[in-house]
Amino acid sequence: MTKNNEQLSLEVAALTRETKELGIPIMIVFEGVPASGKTRLSNELLLTLDAKYTRFIPTKSPTEDDLRYQFLQKYWNSLPARGDINIYFRSWYAYFIEYQENKIKNSIYNKYHVLKRQIQNFESMIKDDGYEIIKFYIEISDKKRKAHLKEMKENPLTNWKAQEYESAIADDVYHKEMHKILKDAPKDEWKIIDYTEKDEAIKSMNQHIITRLKSAIQLHKETKKVSDGNFSDNFKSELLNQSIEKINNKTYKSLIGELQSRLKELQFALYERKIPLILVYEGMDAAGKGGNIKRVREKLDPTGYEVNAISAPTDVELTHHYLWRFAKDMPRSGHVEIFDRSWYGRVLVERVEGFATKDEWSRAYQEINQFEKMWTDEGAIVLKFFLTLDKDEQLKRFKEREETPEKQWKITDEDWRNREKWDLYIEASHDMIEKTNTDYAPWHIVPADNKKSARIEVLKYIIKKCEEALWGVKQY
Amino acid sequence: MTKNNEQLSLEVAALTRETKELGIPIMIVFEGVPASGKTRLSNELLLTLDAKYTRFIPTKSPTEDDLRYQFLQKYWNSLPARGDINIYFRSWYAYFIEYQENKIKNSIYNKYHVLKRQIQNFESMIKDDGYEIIKFYIEISDKKRKAHLKEMKENPLTNWKAQEYESAIADDVYHKEMHKILKDAPKDEWKIIDYTEKDEAIKSMNQHIITRLKSAIQLHKETKKVSDGNFSDNFKSELLNQSIEKINNKTYKSLIGELQSRLKELQFALYERKIPLILVYEGMDAAGKGGNIKRVREKLDPTGYEVNAISAPTDVELTHHYLWRFAKDMPRSGHVEIFDRSWYGRVLVERVEGFATKDEWSRAYQEINQFEKMWTDEGAIVLKFFLTLDKDEQLKRFKEREETPEKQWKITDEDWRNREKWDLYIEASHDMIEKTNTDYAPWHIVPADNKKSARIEVLKYIIKKCEEALWGVKQY
């Protein structure tokens, strides 16, 4: 028997070297009541795997800091890179039960289904991206469990740990809730392991992992990667072809400072009410995103906002789910995060340039909607601006940049290359707005042929939406 | 005047594009009593800089979680990458004053000089690596300051912020302590700015930044990068040429389990006493580091330890100070962190292969000593193992790996290439041990010709050192 487990361990180790090679990220979840044997079982697995790409992630009760972020924030942050393995010692499921039972953020999560949907969406997003999630629920006979707890209590050096177990959620609550989850889950989603016989348990764990890794490897090899922007030949869209009334200088000067001061006041009000504000900017090159953002932030308190200007992903970012790098930077409660370009790159530049496969960018619309909902579910305000520009106006601005010494750094060959693909970008933008213009995170199209008018327009819109969220009736 | 400040801002922006290009990391510190104008001044600077590579980092009072890490941990974590700019809104100096005044971790920091030395070492380490640190202290006339505070209090939307100011360290304490720091600092280290006249203050800030950036750029261009391992031709060392008595199988089997159980008990005791344990493994290829680590961790509770197996740095890691990626992974209080290879790579592989310049690896000995002291200063146990192997024994193990199917993945061309440089590695190892064998973080040389003996030796040594730290008199 022992020999057999040794062979199984070697097989698990060999398979994980293969998943590493192929870049398949693995997440292995251990749930189970305290003293059920999940420590010993997960440690057994941990010892088998290569420490170079294995992480052990224990789920603790949410800290005060955790509570200032979105429910799944810490699981986003610690997502494994391609080829890496995370072992979760209790997971988002235990976390979920704790939120429910301790009525954490009760005002937001007054309905069971919100967090449950978040978990479902989280898992489906990462599974779609090739992540393999293996879930174990560990059980043990009551007799053995009590014996083990007693032993811990009697040893002065481990007594505190037994106490810690008891100060967490009551075992029977956890047990009851987990059994609800197990019952509702699709068949075969969870592997239940009885730890009463240790060797049998290890064997069962290893066999299950082997089966799952083999099928993940098989699936990975069969998946064809097709890059195809799939653009229609004669796309025409008027949606992005609007214009805005030109504002005169005097009105602009008197309005801009007033609006900025109001926004600063609202920043403080959002902070006090712990409402995060997420502003997303997309739009054509040279539409004036930077200048627009500058006017929005100009009077804000810098300790409470951040601008995230998105460039090409680093190699570390490329080895994660594409939403990972944005999830990591989502604001704390009461803070403002401004994205100068964003996760929408997936369905814009990545689609047009073929950096994402058709399958990837096609499913991204739904992923993005689910992603944004995770934050609005918890009270965040998400506002998205698309700054549009006439093609001739863009040419004029490009040339002006080239001719003005202190603006030359702003214009690169890439801008000219993008311009050649103008129509493709328009079509991709159009699809994006149509498919991600949700009630809870709407797009606001801002004609930016006149920069000053566009700035006033954006400021007014942000103020209106913040006031609604703070004091108005309109809530999603 | 306004025009002038606009030109200065443009110059600052242009210079930071140059430091970005050259890869010079910039850290700009703003200290000053509340309502002195540092918010407005730092925001003015922030608006000038490119959000793509600028981060604004406000220092808050230490949270419970912060206190579980080393004093400067959060500043290590947020170190800018090469070419990036961090603006610190209050910094490690305010943090230092708060630690002092609120008697945080008083048992450890009973002497003023410990934290002060940590700050000095931190700054000198990163300056040596080409980081430019620019420090401002903002002052304002008392009259203007009080007027500003009053205004904040009267506005219901900003009243809470005025209150927050007052709940922090008393202004006069902060003021008194900062003036001590300013007085003790070398001339020109801090730029003091009076904010009473806003435009003058902005001008003074911009001018100072321009001067400092210019000199940093100049210095960067003058610095020659020389890679030279500087090895003596006839190096011979007996230090690493020891052997260990072979243990018999029966003794090994009875001892190993007993020692592992004891170490597990000690893990719990360290946890309760909040003492972090840091184990560093270095040594020749095939010396059995992995197997040795496996025996150390075998019975430990996986929620309380981590193994950090060091591979080649990622591109993100390469753009930071070389100690950054290790600092980030240092353990919380009461946790165990095992490094399978470590920061010593700087003076081993990086020296031998020429990845670090002579200047870089030469100063690394002192940097490493200072780095380790930062953790032992706060009560961490740092133990370092060097596993040695006879050259013939290594050959035997390499060949065995090649001939055993399930071990083949362990042997690569790189191992053979390293072997060709055996003598250089020996000399580098020898220098390393001589120069970093400190009282507070000693090396333990472990002859590993016999793997089982080496495992017993390491376990015994760890147990002895933990017992000493927990209950013994020997403390550093």
From TrEMBL, chains A, B:
Residues 3-216, 247-468 form the Polyphosphate kinase-2-related domain. Pfam families: PPK2. InterPro entries: P-loop_NTPase (IPR027417), PPK2-related (IPR022488). It comes from the Bacteria. Transmembrane segments: none annotated. SUPFAM superfamilies: P-loop containing nucleoside triphosphate hydrolases. This is Phosphate--AMP phosphotransferase. The lineage of its organism: Bacteria, Bacillati, Bacillota, Bacilli, Bacillales.
